[in-house]
Amino acid sequence: MPTNHSSPPFRADHVGSLLRPEKLLRAKQAFRDGKVTQEQLRVEEDVAVRDVVRLQEDLGLKSITDGEFRRQLWHTDFLMQFSNVETGQTGMTAKFHNESGAIEREMTSFRVSGRLERMHPIFVDHFAFLAKVTSQTAKITIPSPTVLHFRGGRDAVDRTAYPDMEDFFTDLAAAYSQEIHDLDQTGCSYLQIDEVNFAYLCDPALRAQAQSIGENPDELIGTYARLINDAISNRPAGMRIALHLCRGNFEGAWLADGGYEQVAETLFNDVQVDGYFLEYDTPRAGDFKPLRFVPPNKTVVLGLVSTKSPVLESKDELKRRIDEAAKYIPLEQLALSPQCGFASGERGNKITLDEELEKLRLVVETAEEVWGD
Predict the structure, then answer these.
(1) How far is CA 15 from CA 33, 216, 249, 292, 339, in A?
(2) Which of 69, 109, 256, 274 could covalently link to 247 via disulfide, CB atoms 3.0 to 4.6 Å apart?
(3) Rounded to whole angstroms, how far apart are CA atoms 167 and 165?
(4) 3-state class percentages of the chain: helix first, strand second, coil last, to nearest 5
(5) All structural domains of the chain
(6) Which of 93, 111, 74 is nearest to 255 (CA)?
(7) Whether residue 69 has pLDDT greater than 70
(8) Comparing C-alpha atoms, which of 191, 203, 258 is closest to residue 228?
(9) What is the pLDDT of residue 1?
(10) Mean model confidence pLDDT for the chain
(11) Per-residue pLDDT band at 49 (split at 50, 70, 90)
(12) What is the DSSP letter of 73?
């Protein structure tokens, strides 16, 4: 079945997180300081979400998120809601990079200290409010289930609770399935899963770090494909799911290098999603050749506009690169977006609100000129 761009992913789309307004950041800090209540913070969040929804609609976007305004970090706010999930240090170091050089920091991991269980809905209320305040397609983003495994591996999962790792993956997928079911019941038709580890498995240094904790990087590619498929296996027919691959986004710095070739065949054919948001803003993502593996019923959203740099790309350069990608996959299966979110954490990337708006407007205008729909 060919792709249909009256349904998501859209020709002009975006990854999800947006810069938090200063007023909201002040309210969040006041809550942490005990100066305002949870309810008072919620009122401020509601106002900020309404404003950012209008911003996206005014730009002409059809995919509307809440900017992830209710979260502190893109992944922890979700994963820490499962029972027996704790954070800790892995002993693995990460070198994030930006234009100023390398930023070395120890990687935080998750530890599973007992049986996993989703005790209550997690982002369902977030989605319900978003859907209520937009006239376009509301999109919710959640971290990939692979995030709970990659940084710690077998040793980060309690052996008494899970002597067999297959049971761990089964429980993890079941917890995701429950959240997806409840999102569907609330009217969600567009879900994005933020996946970093397929991209990390393209980086030789990160593959070596996975080996250092006893994991086989090549086997993880298949393991993670099955895990994601199990997590979404009971999704309703009307829900579109896209996978966003990220090479790290720590206040505009990145972690991983390497093209998609190493994972492409499994990623595009075995992972049963409808589309892929792929980082392609710099040469560190490799060339477009891996797109030859994409089947005809899936959409690739080219992340050609950088959220890590304030420099505005030119339409001519974006169109040239879209044409280059179309040598390996039909133009009809392509779309355009920024390469990542603008604020994977509260503090956001080193970019201003005006620069964020210019980049989003560029995506919309370029998509209209290329595809006309």
Answers:
(1) 31, 30, 12, 23, 7
(2) 256
(3) 5
(4) 40, 20, 40
(5) 22-371 (3.20.20.210)
(6) 93
(7) yes
(8) 191
(9) 45
(10) 93
(11) very high
(12) B
Strands of the chain (E only): list them: 63-64, 85-98, 101-112, 137-138, 140-143, 190-195, 240-245, 275-279, 299-305, 334-338
Q: Is pLDDT above 80 for 121?
A: yes
Partner residues linked to 103 by β-bridges: 96
Task: At 305, list the tokens.
Answer: 């506009």
d(CA 8, CA 228): 19
Q: What tokens were used for 309?
A: 């740099």
With a pLDDT cut of 70, the percent of the chain lying above it is 91
The tens digit of pLDDT for each residue in 326-352 reads 999 999 999 999 999 999 999 889 999
Q: Which amino acid is at 311?
A: V
User: Is there a contact between 308 and 253 (Cβ–Cβ < 8 Å)?
Assistant: yes
| DSSP state string for 85-144 | EEEEEEEEEEEEEETTEEEEEEEEEEEE-S---B-S-SSHHHHHHHHHH-SSEE-EEEE-
Handedness of CA 55, 56, 58, 59 (dihedral sign): positive
Average pLDDT score over residue span 138-157: 95
Cβ-based neighbours of 225, under 8 Å, separated by 6 or more: 266, 267, 270, 271
Q: Is the four-CA dihedral 132, 137, 141, 145 of positive or negative sign?
A: positive
Structure token digits, residue 43: 């009122």
Say which residue the tokens 């899963």 belong to. 193
102 vs 95: CA distance, rounded Å: 6
Distance of CA 363 to the CA centre of its chain: 18
